[in-house]
Design a protein that fits this description.
Number of strands of chain A: 15
Radius of gyration of chain A: 19 Å
Largest sheet of chain A: 7 strands, mixed
Strand order of the largest sheet of chain B: 3-2-1-4-16
Strand content of chain B: 15-25%
Helix content of chain B: 25-40%
Largest interface: A-B, 43 and 45 residues
Oligomer: heterodimer
Order of helices and strands of chain A: EEHEEEHEEHEHEEHEHEEEHEHH
Distance between the termini of chain B: 55 Å
Shape of chain A: globular
Number of helices of chain A: 9
Structural class of chain B: alpha/beta
Helix content of chain A: 25-40%
Number of helices of chain B: 19
Strand order of the largest sheet of chain A: 10-9-8-7-11-12-15
Chain lengths: ~280, ~475
């Protein structure tokens, strides 16, 4: 087996692919909350992907990628037996794992992937885990079974009511708060807007809230500063200070804007890729 | 030839790409000497007995000897002479600040009363290195018998590559652990193609590989392996992890869309080849008015890169005057020729943006020079009421960076100063951990390629002694 080789690949939701990749050093070293930076080819960009799981004996890590731009589409089109061009990691500061009491783990869409190893570790540390998974509709959930296995209670929420309770993850969280449940910590990972809404809600009740941010990065090793965000007014770097931060301190609006810096470029690159890919398929 | 005759030869200028042309391409600006030009320039060297130039070279190249060989047309021996002391001559010939080092005390410059008329040592070094590379047969230095000792080098930048070159020659086994997907450090992510073609760096790395140096890429020491773990396999370790997080001004608007650190801007353009987007995947903003804050070489590189990426106006905003600028004169001149506008004695107060968060301008204040400060340079003082707005759509902050935090963060025994730089013994480069050495920007903060190489050279010598003594213990 070659380093960075794709050993298995599965489509686990529309536009969401799970890969098992051979990279034994990282498989042994990674801790919950850490990520890798990958490239698909020689002219490729460097993108961060959270490590969803690892098997140190087999020497593999699990990456889950949602196809949204050129690089993620290209990754999804890679086949078993092919090798990624580069994988660097494990990067970022690992999650602080501690027995706190009751921990609510909130996952939105593909954000469940980074949430899973953290939930696993928090459960192992002796916490009572209440998981809330949310998505627009039933077919968009990932890792539901895995999350059930590491949770004491499980709540499912869909925007359209096609599965579980109708509403957002914040609706379910508000209900737990209203029920007077003791909540020692909330961990929320998902779309930026979801993490923002959860943080705004828990701030009203002073419930400590950890979020994991997935900003634009280049080197990912504390050199370029492209991943910077504002935490309580101070500049922090997601790649070395994070990726996890106190959700109450994040300047969400600034982050949301910064995430859109290359929207136009992303469209150009994706369209060009899709055109070439189609031409290649036809040929 | 008599001294008087030598002094009468006018300095040989190097052909350059015209400014109007070069701002539309990434090709190198100075085109290099022809053999005839090199020999003529070499004849200007007086072959002084007291060799002031050697004292000015951080790695101590025998400058008069290699120049003597060039004058004779013996280019092979010239490059061999240089390579006795310098593992990256094609790089140093281009990016060393020779006017502050070897060329500063040059007797020819002294007699002719200006450093500008010193012998062009750097250009001759470049010539010799390019000649060898283009000849297709790169001479391999002799390697000492194998010692059985193993060295880990953390970071494949100028300091690390120097240590690798020195220690492989001393007979040790050498592995370079590079965090990025390419070796060269700042030579590949920072210094632009038009100042240092990347094929030259690639070539230098391949030369080291051909001598037996092993390169491991995507290998982030401090994350994938600790210093302790490296010691299970290696006898001595060199840390040359270089520049870390960029500094910002701490003014309003620095997180607006279109504000870059110079590190990010240059990394996108150079390492990630954003100038070739969408053929390469990494994007960079296509903007028409760019302001770069800072007065060093990195600021010049950024402002000149912006022009090549299609900016109509590229401004340098610097709070002191031109004489205080840390950038090399050559870089300042090149930037001016290309149309970079210098706004001197100006300091930014805030960056302004629109509702979507995009940069729209910068509010600046005029400065005047007051009393000298701790650096010996006259302190810039704001002139009250002189605020004004400049319309720009991108800002590049090039005011320096702190040393890379990764290794120190997970290695508590490694002593660092309050800026995060690793503390080393000045004579040996040894850190607070026995057998672990460090050098380059991780020690110095932001310095130059050649100073990093000088530190690498010093550490390599000490590491060699350390490992050989350890054997007899």
């Amino acid at each position: 087996m070659n380093n960075y080789e794709i050993l298995s690949k599965a489509n686990i939701a529309p536009q969401v692919t799970r890969f098992e990749i051979y990279v034994p050093k990282i498989a042994r070293k990674r801790q919950a909350g850490q990520f890798v930076i990958i490239r698909t080819w020689e002219g490729g960009e460097r993108i961060p992907l959270t490590i969803a799981d690892a098997n140190p004996e087999k020497g593999t890590i699990t990456l889950i990628s949602q196809s949204v731009g050129k690089t993620t589409f290209e990754l999804a089109n890679m086949q078993v037996g092919q090798c990624l061009k580069d994988i660097a990691g494990p990067l970022g500061t690992p999650t602080h794992i501690e027995k706190l009491g009751t921990v609510i783990c909130i996952g939105g869409g593909v954000g469940t992937a980074p949430l899973y190893p953290i939930t696993q570790a928090m459960k192992k540390a002796g916490n009572h885990i209440i998981t809330i998974l949310g998505a627009r509709s039933k077919d968009l959930f990932i890792l539901e079974k895995e999350m059930r296995n590491v949770s004491d209670e499980m709540i499912i929420a869909t925007d359209d009511g096609s599965y579980g309770e109708k509403g957002f993850v914040t609706t379910a969280l508000q209900k737990l708060i209203d029920d007077g449940r003791q909540i020692n910590q909330v961990i929320a990972i998902g779309p930026t807007i979801m993490m923002k809404m959860v943080s705004l809600l828990t701030k009203n009740y002073n419930i400590p809230t950890v979020v994991s941010l997935n900003t634009i990065m280049i080197d990912g090793t504390g050199m370029c500063g492209g991943c910077r965000i504002s935490i309580n007014g101070a500049i922090k770097f997601v790649c070395v200070d994070g990726p996890e931060f106190d959700g109450h301190g994040v300047n969400w609006d600034e982050m949301l804007k910064r995430m859109g810096t290359y929207k136009k470029h992303e469209c150009v690159a994706l369209n060009q890729y899709k055109k070439h890919h189609r031409e290649a398929e036809v040929a | 030839m008599k001294t008087k005759e030598r002094l009468q030869i006018p300095p040989v200028g190097m052909q350059q790409q015209a400014a109007s042309e070069r701002i539309h391409n990434q090709n190198e600006v100075p085109l290099g000497f022809t053999p005839e030009e090199a020999r003529l320039e070499a004849l200007r060297c007086l072959q002084c007995k007291n060799v002031p130039c050697i004292a000015g070279c951080p790695v101590g190249i025998d400058i008069p000897s290699f120049i003597g060989f060039i004058a004779e047309g013996n280019f092979q021996d010239a490059i061999l002479k240089i390579k006795e002391k310098n593992v990256l001559p094609a790089v140093c010939g281009r990016v060393c600040p020779q006017e502050e080092q070897c060329q500063l005390p040059c007797t020819v410059g002294k007699i002719l009363k200006t450093t500008e008329k010193s012998v062009s040592i750097g250009k001759l070094e470049r010539f010799a290195a390019d000649w060898e590379r283009n000849s297709g047969s790169v001479s391999k230095p002799k390697l000492a018998p194998k010692t059985g000792k193993r060295v880990a080098i953390v970071g494949g930048g100028p300091a690390g590559l120097t240590v690798a070159g020195d220690l492989i020659k001393s007979g040790h086994e050498v592995t370079v652990f590079e965090a990025l997907h390419k070796a060269g450090g700042v030579l590949v992510y920072g210094i632009p193609e038009f100042r240092l073609p990347k094929k030259i760096v690639k070539n230098e790395v391949e030369n080291l590989q051909s001598l037996g140096v092993e390169f491991k890429y995507n290998y982030v020491i401090g994350k994938i392996e600790s210093i302790d773990e490296l010691f299970q396999e290696y006898d001595s370790i060199f840390i040359g992890t270089g520049a870390g997080l960029p500094r910002f001004m701490g003014i309003e608007g620095e997180n607006l869309l279109g504000v870059y650190s110079a590190n990010e801007y240059l990394t996108r353009a150079n390492l990630m080849r954003a100038f070739d987007f969408p053929n390469a995947d990494t994007p960079i903003l296509n903007v028409s008015r760019v302001a770069t804050i800072g007065g060093g070489n990195v600021a010049m590189d950024s402002a000149r890169t912006a022009l090549r990426l299609g900016a109509e106006r590229s401004l340098i905003i610097y709070r002191r005057s031109e004489v205080e600028m840390p950038a090399r004169n050559e870089e300042i001149e090149h930037a001016k020729d290309e149309g970079v506008e210098f706004h001197l004695l100006v300091n930014p107060i805030r960056i302004t943006g629109n509702e979507e968060g995009w940069v729209t301008g910068m509010e600046d204040i005029k400065m005047e020079l007051g009393e000298p400060d701790a650096s010996g340079r006259r302190r810039p003082v704001p002139i009250p009421g002189s605020e004004f707005i400049v319309d720009v759509d991108a800002v590049i902050v090039a005011i320096g960076n702190s040393p890379n935090p990764l290794v120190a963060k997970v290695t508590p025994e490694l002593k660092v100063n309050r800026w995060g730089g690793i503390i080393v013994d000045e004579k040996t480069g040894e850190t607070s951990i026995k057998g672990v050495y460090a050098g380059g920007d991780i020690v110095l903060g932001a310095a130059t390629v050649i100073l990093a190489m000088g530190e690498g050279r010093r550490a390599a010598k000490a590491m060699h002694e350390y490992m050989m003594n350890e054997k007899t213990d």
